[in-house]
From TrEMBL:
Alphabetized InterPro entries for the sequence: CAT-like_dom_sf, Condensation_dom
Superkingdom assignment: Bacteria
Cleaved signal peptide residues: none
Chain ranges of the Condensation domain: 2-80
Name this protein carries in UniProt: Condensation domain-containing protein
Organism, scientific name: Peribacillus frigoritolerans
Entry-linked Pfam families: Condensation (PF00668)
GO terms assigned for molecular function: catalytic activity
One annotated GO biological process: lipid biosynthetic process
C-alpha cells in the first residue's frame, strides 16, 4: 500500500489469528528471514524516464502494527477491501 505521507510502498497483509500472538517473536522471525533472503531487503526506485533501479538494503526496519478486531466488523471489511487496491508502481517516486 502506498503511503503518500512518506512516499513509501508498504506491504499490508491481514491475518485472522486466534489466540495469543507474541509480536516480538513474530518481528524477530521476519527480520531473521529477511536476513537470509536478499530479495526481501530490496527497494525499487523509478527514474523520471520510467527505468526501475533495484537497491539492496543492508538491513530493514520492521514494524508490525496490529489491532484486535473483535466487534469491529465494518472496519475489518474496509481493511480487507483496501488490501486489494491496485498500486500504480510506475507513478510511485521515492
Amino acid at each position: 500500500m502506498f503511503d503518500s505521507e512518506s512516499s513509501q510502498y508498504k506491504v499490508q497483509l491481514i491475518f485472522d489469528i486466534k489466540g495469543f500472538m507474541d509480536v516480538e517473536k513474530l518481528t524477530n522471525a521476519i527480520v531473521t528471514t529477511a536476513g537470509k533472503h536478499d530479495i526481501l531487503k530490496t527497494k525499487l526506485y523509478s527514474s523520471r524516464k520510467g527505468v526501475f533501479y533495484q537497491l539492496l538494503m543492508s538491513s530493514m526496519d520492521t514494524e508490525i502494527e496490529y489491532e484486535e478486531m473483535i466487534d469491529h466488523q465494518e472496519k475489518l471489511e474496509k481493511l480487507l477491501a483496501d488490501q486489494y487496491k491496485i498500486i500504480d508502481i510506475e507513478n510511485i517516486i521515492s
